[in-house]
Design brief:
- This protein is α/β, with parallel strands linked by helices and about 170 residues long.
- The chain is about 55% helix and about 15% strand.
- It is built from eight helices and five strands, in the order E-H-E-H-H-E-H-E-H-H-E-H-H.
- The chain has a five-stranded parallel β-sheet with strand order 2-3-1-4-5, with helices on both faces.
- The longest helix has 22 residues.
């Protein structure tokens, strides 16, 4: 299927890049975090507070596995890489694009991780989380786009350049 799935850290621009790219390609756009909030009837941070990190990941895995789409740009939350079932599902239905960005830039963009609904385990620093996730993003990515030093427009152009021909066909 001709879907594009963006993975990366919170505040990497997955939704922002995704919406603009979807418009350019004539695709639909799905923000998986919004789907989770709608299905659970709660904000992400409320789900994390109620169910804990592991409980939230179970919800995230279940809901992301249920997303069926074609010709769609999908932006799951940054913690999706902890959800093996969901990542396998996404690998089967599209091209997984890792929006890579340096720790320093992410740390500046992301003022309050907890309010953003970021899954941090007890005692885990944001640097630890970043290092842990980068390895997983690299594991699951079909392609990687480094955003460091790029504007939004330049990032989108770079994504367009590396998309598989099957996706470009729909432009």
């Amino acid at each position: 299927m001709g879907n594009i799935i963006f993975i990366g850290m919170p505040a990497a621009g997955k939704s922002t890049v995704g919406v603009v790219l979807a418009k350019r390609l004539g695709f639909q756009f799905i923000d998986a975090d919004i789907v989770i909030q709608e299905e659970e009837g709660k904000l992400l941070k409320e789900i994390i507070e109620e169910k804990g990190a592991d409980g939230f990941l179970e919800v995230e895995d279940r809901i992301n596995c249920s997303i069926e789409a074609d010709n769609t740009v999908i932006s799951p939350g940054g913690s999706i890489v902890y959800c093996e079932n969901a990542m396998q599902h996404y690998k089967e239905i599209g091209t997984v694009v890792y929006l890579k960005i340096s720790y320093d830039i992410i740390n500046k963009r992301l003022k309050n991780a907890k309010n953003r609904g970021v899954v941090l385990r007890e005692g885990q620093t944001f640097q630890n989380l970043y290092d842990e996730r980068v390895r997983l993003f690299e594991k699951y990515a079909d392609v990687t786009v480094c955003e460091d030093g790029l504007s939004l427009e330049e990032t989108i152009d770079k994504v367009m350049e590396i998309l598989p021909e099957t996706v470009k066909y729909y432009r």
